[in-house]
Amino acid sequence: MKREGTGQRATVLTDLRALLRFPGFRRLLNVRLLSQFADGVFQVGLATYVVFSPEQQTTAADIAAAMAILLLPYSLLGPFAGVLLDRWRRRQVLFHGNLLRSVLAAGTCALVLSGVPDWLFYLSALSVTAINRFILAGLSAGLPHVVDGERLVVANALSPTAGTLASTAGGGAGFVVQMLARSQGVENALALLVAVAFYLLAGLAALRMAPGLLGPDEGTMPGRLGAAVLDTARGLAAGLRHLRERPMAAWTLGGLGMMRFCYGALLVTLLMLCRYAWSDDGDGGGGGLAWLGAALGVSGAGFFAAAVVTPWAVARLGRLGWFTACAALAAVLVPSLGLPFRPVPMIVAAFVLGLVTQGAKIVTDTVVQSAVDDAFRGRVFSLYDMIFNMAFVGSAGLAALILPSDGRSAVLLLTVSALYATTAVMTYRVLRRFT
Questions:
Q1: What DSSP line would sit under 180-230, residue for residue?
Q2: Percentage of the chain exceeding pLDDT 90
Q3: pLDDT digit string, tens, across residues 20-30
Q4: What is the pLDDT of residue 8?
Q5: Among 152, 264, 302, 414, which one has the highest count of C-beta atoms within 10 angstroms of its own C-beta?
Q6: What are the distances in angstroms from CA 182 to CA 170, 187, 205, 272, 287?
Q7: Ramachandran region of residue 116, left (φ > 0), alpha (ψ -120 to 50) or beta?
Q8: Rounded to two decimals, what is the model's pTM?
Q9: d(CA 61, CA 44)
C-alpha cells in the first residue's frame, strides 16, 4: 500500500507538471490566484471594518448582515450565473468583471473613509461580492478550453484548491496589513485598497489570453434568456425531486447543513468575543484582531487535517460512522472548551471545529457524488451550495437574537451543542437504516 500511495503521488505530480506546460492554463490559473487572493483581502477588510471599527459599536446583527452580504450572492445567483455566462466571452467576463470589482472596491474604501450610512456601505460591498459568482463560474467554464480532456480531472482538482489557498493567503495578508497599519489611522480602508490593486492585476492578467480562448464556441447560440432562466429553475426543482428519491444523500446533506449552521453561530460568537471580551480598549481592538487571526488560521489547519484524517477514519468507521463521530465530537467539545470564554480553549475549539466540519463535508461530497445520478449531479450540487451558504447566514441570524454585546452566551453554546448531538443521533439512525 505504501508503494502504491507513493506511485499515485508521483503520477499526480507528473500530471501537474504536464498541466502547467499549457500556456492557456497557466494564464487562467494566474487570473484565478490574483482574483481569489483579492477576495480574501477584501473579505478581511470588510469583516474588520464591521467588527473592529472603533467608530461604531458592532452588534451580532451587524455581523449577521455582513455574512449575508458575503454569502447570499453565491446562494441566490450561483445557479443562474451560467445562463448569462454562456452569452458572453468568458475572457471578457474575467477582464471586465475584475476591473469593475476594482472600481467598486475603491468606492467601498472611499465610503469607509467618509463615514457614510451603513446601508450604502453594504450595498457597495454587496456589488463586489455578487460579481464574484460570475468570475468563479467563468474560471471553471473556461478550463476545458485550455487543457486537453485527459488532464481535465487534474485541472479541476488543482484550480479550485489553488484558489482556496490563494484566498486564505489573501485573508492572512489582510490581517497583517491591518496590524501593521494600526498607528496610521487608515487601517479600516487599507486592506480594501490592497484588494483594489489585486482585482486590477487580475483583470489585466486576463488580457494575456486571446479574446475567444475561453469560449463559448462560435455557433453555440444560447436560447432566449427568459426561457434559459426558467429552465434553470425547473432544473433545480428536478434536482430536489431526485434528491428526495436518494434518502441517504438527502439526510447527509441535511446533516451537513446543520453542522454548517452550528459553525456559523460559533463564528459570530468568536467575532464578538474578539471585539469586546478579548480586546483592550487601549489598543484599539488590536489584541482581539490578533486572536481572531489566530483562530481562523488554526481553523484552517483543522480543515487541512481533515483532508489527511478523513480517508483513514472512513476506512475504519465508514462514511456515516465518521460523520457521526464528527458531530458527536463537536457536541462534547463545544461546551467543554467554549464555556470558559477564554482565548486559548477557544483556539483549540477552532481547530477541532475546522477538522470535524471539513471532515463531514468530505463525507457529504462523497455520498452525494456516489448516490446521485450523473444527469442530476450538477443540479444537486447547486442545491448543495445554496443549503451550505444559507445555513451559514441563518446561523448568524440566530446568534444575533441570542448573543449579548460581549459574546458570552452559555445559552447559545449549549444550543449549538444540542444541535450537534441531534445531528449525530440522526446520522447514526440513517447509518443503521442503510447498513
A1: HTGGGT-HHHHHHHHHHHHHHHHHHHHTTS-TTTT-PPTT-----HHHHHH
A2: 24
A3: 888 999 999 99
A4: 41
A5: 264
A6: 18, 5, 32, 20, 11
A7: beta
A8: 0.75
A9: 18
Long-range contacts of 159-166 (CB under 8 A, 24+ apart): 159/28, 159/29, 159/32, 162/29, 162/32, 162/33, 163/32, 163/33, 163/35, 163/36, 163/136, 163/139, 164/36, 166/32, 166/33, 166/34, 166/36, 166/37, 166/40
Q: Determine the Cα–Cα distance for residues 88 and 216; give it in Å rounded to an integer.
A: 7
Count of residues in the chain: 435
- Residue 348's CB is within 10 A of a number of other CB atoms, namely 15
Q: Which of 276, 261, 256 is nearest to 393 (CA)?
A: 261
Set out the domains of the chain in order of their start, with CATH numbers. Answer: 22-222 (1.20.1250.20), 236-435 (1.20.1250.20)
Closest Cα to residue 268, out of 73, 65, 130? 65
Whether residue 137 contacts residue 81, with contact meaning beta carbons closer than 8 Å, is answered with yes
| Selection from 404, 73, 385 nearest residue 260 by Cα | 385
> What is the CB neighbour count within 10 angstroms for residue 164?
14
Q: How many CB atoms lie within 10 A of CB 227?
A: 11
**Cβ within 8 Å of residue 230, ≥6 positions away:** none
- State how far the alpha carbon of 230 is from the alpha carbons of 25, 111, 115, 356, in Å: 33, 37, 41, 38
Tens of pLDDT, residues 85-129: 667 788 998 999 999 999 999 998 888 888 777 778 878 888 888
Q: Which residue has the cell 471553471?
A: 140
What is the separation, in whole angstroms, between the first and last Cα of the chain?
27
Question: How confident is the model at residue 2, as a pLDDT?
Answer: 41
User: What distance in Å separates the CA atoms of residue 197 and residue 170, rounded to the nearest whole number?
Assistant: 12
46-95: per-residue pLDDT in tens?
Answer: 877 777 766 666 777 777 777 777 677 667 776 776 666 667 788 998 99
The pLDDT tens digits for 306-355 are 878 888 888 889 889 999 999 999 999 999 998 888 989 999 999 999 89
